Amino acid sequence: xxxxxxxxxxxxxxxxxxxxxxxxxxxxxxxxxxxxxxxxxxxxxxxxxxxxxxxxxxxxxxxxxxxxxxxxxxxxxxxxxxxxxxxxxxxxxxxxxxxxxxxxxxxxxxxxxxxxxxxxxxxxxxxxxxxxxxxxxxxxxxxxxxxxxxxxxxxxxxxxxxxxxxxxxxxxxxxxxxxxxxxxxxxxxxxxxxxxxxxxxxxxxxxxxxxxxxxxxxxxxxxxxxxxxxxxxxxxxxxxxxxxxxxxxxxxxxxxxxxxxxxxxxxxxxxxxxxxxxxxxxxxxxxxxxxxxxxxxxxxxxxxxxxxxxxxxxxxxxxxxxxxxxxxxxxxxxxxxxxxxxxxxxxxxxxxxxxxxxxxxxxxxxxxxxxxxxxxxxxxxxxxxxxxxxxxxxxxxxxxxxxxxxxxxxxxxxxxxxxxxxxxxxxxxxxxxxxxxxxxxxxxxxxxxxxxxxxxxxxxxxxxxxxxxxxxxxxxxxxxxxxxxxxxxxxxxxxxxxxxxxxxxxxxxxxxxxxxxxxxxxxxxxxxxxxxxxxxxxxxxxxxxxxxxxxxxxxxxxxxxxxxxxxxxxxxxxxxxxxxxxxxxxxxxxxxxxxxxxxxxxxxxxxxxxxxxxxxxxxxxxxxx
Length: 625
Prior knowledge:
seven-stranded parallel sheet; 16% strand
């Protein structure tokens, strides 16, 4: 009997898909979790493509993606086109390319497995890989009907998620990267002019300190301390605007910190910059002519993906590498004029931070990376650390790392490439205000601080993890209803909701649930009797500092093997059925609450050095450069 299948990786053609649903011997297949959710919402019966993957398939996806991300730009015929001022441009965007390639390779493997197992006679494709599907099906003599799909694969920062609260109303929307940077530059230009926050680079004092990508609201005490040094402090935020609300403006103004914007240098060096960009564009034209080489690089199981991703990949590379060339050129001019003593950056995995580190190194400027989150200690992350948020398993790009305490230092020293001399313990400037704030008494609130599926690999992040994450949220909501005197508040993680639409899920569960985007974390956590988060998120530490009973819901297997879990630093829940009894105990059983708080306090004392004075300690460290 003939069999028809429909492959779907987005849900923009729902009305068209509903027509197919009336046909016999036809099955729909969702190729990712977001599509599954949309089809489920529309009550379209479908099968889940992820379920067709074996452990060997998942391993193949991970290994192929890791190798591709780390090596495509190093191909002998390509590498010379992607080096500017001796800097490998492909290395700068590895963090985003890893997620980009992972989604492409996973979809390709899922499609192949479905076709091999189901052996359909006809396939309708609504995918970003229609061309690949057609190539793969030639050997099976399957009829292919490609439906136009204007969607393409994107980098994670091509779309910027904007979240804020308008009084109690949560506002959440997305804008393009280009629009975001237009608005950012416009806002900074206005503030520079009106409040004199910018600076003429020719007037920057020698041995100034350069801060990169810092959020002044999170690091307000640090900005206050570093302003007391007898050195000029400059902030270069190339992604997030340094000033985004009245509080951030007040902090910058009070600290007398000046804001650098590389765009202000463009006019001065306009002709030289345009010439560099023109010459680089010619190099890219030569590189894109190497069609056969790219066909080989992007071949999996003897079939090339290149024709399916050519347009999106070319557009992404042209855009991102042109950005890098422009910034590298302007940074070089900046460092030629200004004698900086040290660079302090928040995380080195970003494109902009890497540029800053590499250009600064040419001028003998040392770079320090400040720990910004609870580091993962599970070995599952080792193979992907370099592509995510600067874990310990891969050699750092920055010269020295500034850590929160002895525990993270010991974790770093487990890897031979990390030396004692490169690790500095200062404590966490971000958390000084948490240590200095007294914990409130009982308030009646429960805080659910959501994160999302990490997506570090296909071997460790299966479809089940997405479902478990959602079920945990639903269960917390259900249990909270047993306590009419308690008020549930949801604080979504700042990360994009494109792959983890938390707000949408919360509104589906109950539109009346209060959602907080931009609340002051100290006050928000202090206003709660219980804090619940996921996979040992950093907000768990902040809750523990403020002596609040803290639960971490572990929906990914690696989270169960973290150090904070092994030594009972917090209450860890792995099973949905354990949520109700443990939540009830942490809200009603005083003895259990005290034991929990005692365990949390022990961990915090071991994990953080200089509690409450880390900002002062770090300022002194910077003053030595």
